[in-house]
Amino acid sequence: MRGRECYPTHATERSSRKTQLGEGGEIVYGLNTGFGVSANTRTKAIERLQRNLTRGLHYGMLAHPAGLENKTCHEDATDLTSILGRALPLDDPVVATCMPEAWARASMLIRLRSLVSGASEVRPSTVNALIQLLEHDITPRIPIRGSISASGDLNPLSYIAGVMQGKPTVSAWTSGRSAGHQRIVCANVALAEANITPIKLEAKEGLAIVNSIAISAGVAALAMHEAHCQAALSQVLTAMSVEALGGTDESCHPFFAKVRPHPGQEESARYIYAYLAGSKLVHRSDGSEEASLRQDRYSIRTVSPVLEDLLLAHQQVIIEADSVTDNPLVLVDGE
Questions:
Q1: Residues 7, 29, 271, 273: which is the catalytic one?
Q2: H or E segment at 268?
Q3: How many other CB atoms sit within 10 Å of the CB of residue 86?
Q4: Whole-prediction pTM
């Protein structure tokens, strides 16, 4: 995916128009005003406002490896394998104080999906910068603490914005999977090594990047994937438990789903019944044998994952991941 290919063609024209609006005296929130409770303040320093916003949100706590005090740290990058060789990740402050790479990359992807809609008023070059970070395995180091997503993941997303700008005060994992190891380097070094041009935030772009719950949505999407895997595994394990205990497949017969058609129950029963089809370990009899159970023990004939709640959560996460959430937004006609 390339930003210039997926970005709306009308967005570039509108991007210049928003600067003209701000400089022309029209009051637009986040363009020439303060933010939140400071929205009653005004400024003509439109681009500086965006830079100050992202810089001011860098209040998270990250442990840095030795060498990152030097802002040009080409030679002082830290190899992740050395960290893992010294201690478990949770015991090492360099790893324990930042979000896992998967969380950060999921958040970047969701933020990218939102920005390419064109409603956030960012330039194609800004979108492309985020794409290039993903393509070159440059992952911002984001503090694991700093946001409760009450009105946006402002603090953690500001570190993504900082890496996009090549700020030497923020760092990133780089030289990832393709090289077989990772290093921690300053953002300016990471971009230089990948031949990526740092962006210069223009009107509203800093706000557009940070005003989102992309971190929470990204983590939720990853958790949802794991939950789906666990739900599928629980059905397999239920079938195996029936076999291990010499049970029957009667409890999962399609008849029961027909007369009590809860979607989650129907799906779970269908899969478990299919797993047990043809099994030589399943007990099939009419119960006439002496001392035989006429039905399975309660613990195995009532086991079923709560799939309907899972599917509802899945739909909500998908909608959120596919939404545009920053403020303000711009219609196609520029309003």
A1: 29
A2: helix 263-276
A3: 10
A4: 0.82
